[in-house]
Write a structure and sequence with these properties.
Oligomer: single chain
InterPro entries: ABC_trans_aux
Number of domains: 1
Protein name: ABC-type transport auxiliary lipoprotein component domain-containing protein
Structural class: alpha/beta
Organism: Caballeronia sordidicola
Strand content: 25-35%
Keywords: Signal
Distance between the termini: 57 Å
Helix content: 25-40%
Number of helices: 4
CATH architecture: 3-Layer(aba) Sandwich
Pfam family, one: ABC_trans_aux
Number of strands: 10
CATH topology: Rossmann fold
């Protein structure tokens, strides 16, 4: 109801009803604004830097996220099977985008590489493709922030691949700022495991081509992908 309609109708109601109606309108207009959170932590350094070309590149694909938390509103739980969707506490973008953006920044910094997903890169450069499937993204205010993810790294040139699992559970204090900080720490732990995986794959030698006789019309075929063991801080995917 607009104010004009309200005051027009107010002439036909008792004064007590008029006061009650005005109070109701004031209550509606004073609802708390939504707060927005991000997993990307800016350093505040505005200095422009131009870096040397990277020795290799990353292709971090979009992150998969459980459908029940794939929304801007925070979804929290208290340790039971019941969850709450918080309208006033929201992510700045979808959680999958928040996790991917934070992972990309962490991996680029830890490895000295560039994430070129969806971006042209020099031909012949070493490229490592990273895929992350978050199977659990749990938020328990005052208790914990948990990320359980299966991830893989594949070398484009050496055809080496590994698939691992990382479970990162961080205790958090009261408040949503602490909860978001806990999720950021969980992403940092996940990035550390993936960085170790990239280093493992990058150290694998390139496969040799299968030999063929001079009379054979078939071209040499590359060896099949080689499965590598997970690094020490990650478990094999189940």
């Amino acid at each position: 109801m607009s104010l004009a309609t309200f005051f027009k109708a107010a002439g036909r109601v008792p004064a007590v009803g008029l006061v009650a109606g005005i109070a109701a309108l004031a209550a509606c207009s004073s609802s708390p604004p939504a707060r927005f959170y991000t997993l990307g932590g800016g350093s505040g350094d505005s200095t422009v830097r131009t870096t040397a070309p990277a020795s290799f590149y990353l292709e971090l694909a979009p992150v998969d996220m459980p459908p029940q938390v794939a929304k801007n509103q925070m979804v929290v739980q208290d340790g039971t099977a019941q969850v709450r969707v918080l309208e006033d506490q929201r992510w700045a973008s979808l959680p999958a985008d928040e996790v991917r953006r934070a992972l990309s920044a962490d991996l680029s910094q830890q490895l000295g590489a560039i994430d070129v997903y969806g971006t042209p890169h020099p031909d012949g450069a070493a490229v490592y493709r990273v895929k992350v499937n978050v199977q659990r993204f749990e938020s328990s205010p005052g208790k914990r922030a948990l990320i359980d993810a299966v991830w893989s790294v594949r070398g484009v040139s050496n055809q080496a691949v590994l698939t691992c699992r990382t479970l990162s559970e961080q205790p958090v204090g009261d408040g949503y700022d602490a909860l978001v900080a806990g999720h950021r720490q969980a992403v940092d732990a996940l990035a550390g495991a993936i960085s170790a995986g990239v280093k493992t794959v990058s150290s694998a030698p390139a496969p040799s081509m299968t030999s063929v006789s001079a009379k054979s019309a078939k071209p040499a075929m590359p060896a099949p992908p080689r499965l590598l063991p997970c690094p020490m801080n990650a478990a094999p995917a189940q």
